[in-house]
Amino acid sequence: MCLPVKRQVLRALWLFAVLDTGLLLDGGMLYPRESSSREVKELSGLWVFRADRSPSRKQGFDEAWYKRRLEETGPVIDVPVPASYNDITQDPAIRDFIGWVWYERELVVPTHWIRDDTIRVVLRVGSAHYNSVVWVNGVSVTQHEGGHLPFEAEVSDVIRKDPTGSCRITIAVNNTLTLQTLPPGNIQYMNDRTRYPDGFFVQSIYFDFFNYAGIHRPVLLYTTPKAYVDDITVVTDFSDNTGLVSYIVSVKGAVTAALKVTLMDKQGHCVASSNGPFGVLKVQDVKLWWPYLTHENPGYLYSMEVRLNAADGRTTYEDVYTLPVGIRTVNVTSTQFLINNKPFYFHGVNKHEDSDIRGKGLDWPLIVKDFNLLKWLGANSFRTSHYPYAEEILQMCDRHGIVVIDESPGVGIKDIRSFGNASLSHHLIVMEELVRRDKNHASVVMWSVANEPASEMPPADYYFNTVIKHTKDLDPTRPVTFISSSNFARDKGAPYVDVICINNYFSWYHDPGHLEVIPIQLNTEYENWHGKYKKPIIQSEYGADAVPGVHVDPPVMFTEEYQKIVLQNYHKVFDQKRAQYLIGELIWNFADFMTTQGVTRVVGNKKGIFTRQRQPKAAAFVLKERYWRLANETGRLPLWTKYPCSL
Ligand code: GCB
């Protein structure tokens, strides 16, 4: 069998295998897009809001606040959606609130959505942190656990009960974390009445970012026909100059269905087509998807139009869904990361979804500014530390060729009680939700199942082996990793990962103030890891806090000078090791971000090379110089980007 044919068969077998891996989830989670058969109604803007301040935090459920307009059961305030609610008001109790908060929005849905029962109306929440319960006109329509992934419910029947089309959406959201949530947390009640007031409790968390809460991503109503395209999975490959797109389409609500799949280039010309729910599209003279700064035309996307003609015995339906598709391959050797069979070196950043006032709420000006800063910096990649980011951000990555390591919210798994079956089952569901949502993004090249878990604990071995294995079953086309903290995990977990990702903070948390230890300690660490596992390494975090505007020379900790030299000392070792097995460097962090208050944090974590307001510190210029030099050495710079100073 010649290679391309063999590959096609393997891809097709995998696609079928995915449908047969004992999935915990039912159905797809395609991003809502308008088409000739689908409408989208965004519900961003002002919602009404009340925090349930009752001691039990259960008053809203006891009094069934969802049954009436929220303002009829107590005082309400305006809050924006999407946004975290924490920094919107002047009330510290709202900023630090733990428990149920209630959101409500009223609208009138278009008459034809009510009258035409061949239309399916779906309510979708992009994400809400952490547990959510949703009602429409007082009727419970769905619940969801997890703060970073979308969920939805069909609401056609509920809205049709009111012929006027008036629709009241109530969403209760609770940010309480437990030892079984992802990320985990733990409520501690302080019962010593000589020291704490009645009812005093704190939420202990084992991660270093503020536990922002609320409805963080857009809420939408969208329609499909009753028979509809429920999910699409694509896997891409190429052989010489022929691109190969294997696909599977799943359809719901149809008795008979005919599918036509057409792949179009950027000009809208059809480059390949096929019929039926699965197949392989062959694209002659393929334009591959290349990362930013590696090609003159990075981020090339085709459009895959899926057209369904279906019938359910009574009615015929047409549904159209168009998916952007980038054609590329990803492979890992013992020393390299290959995109389209060419070595790829990650020179990028770790980020957070975080900014003034809106917290973790999706904000387009911020997203666009961040992409402009990434490009200015010459960054070709980022890791979605420490949870899945908004789909809108991944779409930008696809279009701009920014490579993504896509991380689950498995951060701060430190307590032995978080390694039990309940946590594991939830982690497996979260990985399924993540892969289901992000599997078709060309920019996503690796899954990260967790950040710095206490992998030295005995139960962690079984736990992570299971999560990594399940993730590989879900998607054998992408490497899987988890992020290790310094030496702790050297003997655990690493056997199962494809790429070793290491975080360390030499001359910061270890040997503070001793910049001179960085080269020797980093060198030792790399040699140990690579010597033992013969796998490529990414420096997935390194850095130092710098309070912007604070200068001391010779450098001391927390100054801009110290941050610069930490970076430069790391870079010396990176330059030796990238000739061998180091395949990437991701600075911690792109920008300063908010954390829980504590004695080591000066109004948040200041390891950003940009401030929280996205202004560069001295270190940003060091990194910019380096990243453009790396891009010149390792990539093929497009003409217009050769001279970053003219940007
Ligand atoms: C880490 C964590 C990250 C922290 C960072 C720090 O290892 O992965 O979440 O923010 O260190 O600054 O301490």
UniProtKB/TrEMBL annotation:
GO terms for molecular function: beta-glucuronidase activity; carbohydrate binding. Inhibited by L-aspartic acid. InterPro entries: Beta-gal/glucu_dom_sf (IPR036156), Galactose-bd-like_sf (IPR008979), GH (IPR017853), Glyco_hydro_2 (IPR006101), Glyco_hydro_2_AS (IPR023232), Glyco_hydro_2_cat (IPR006103), Glyco_hydro_2_CS (IPR023230), Glyco_hydro_2_N (IPR006104). Residues 330-631 form the Glycoside hydrolase family 2 catalytic domain. Keywords: Glycoprotein, Glycosidase, Hydrolase, Lysosome, Signal. It catalyses: a beta-D-glucuronoside + H2O = D-glucuronate + an alcohol. Homotetramer. This is Beta-glucuronidase. It comes from Oryzias latipes (Japanese rice fish). The lineage of its organism: Eukaryota, Metazoa, Chordata, Craniata, Vertebrata.
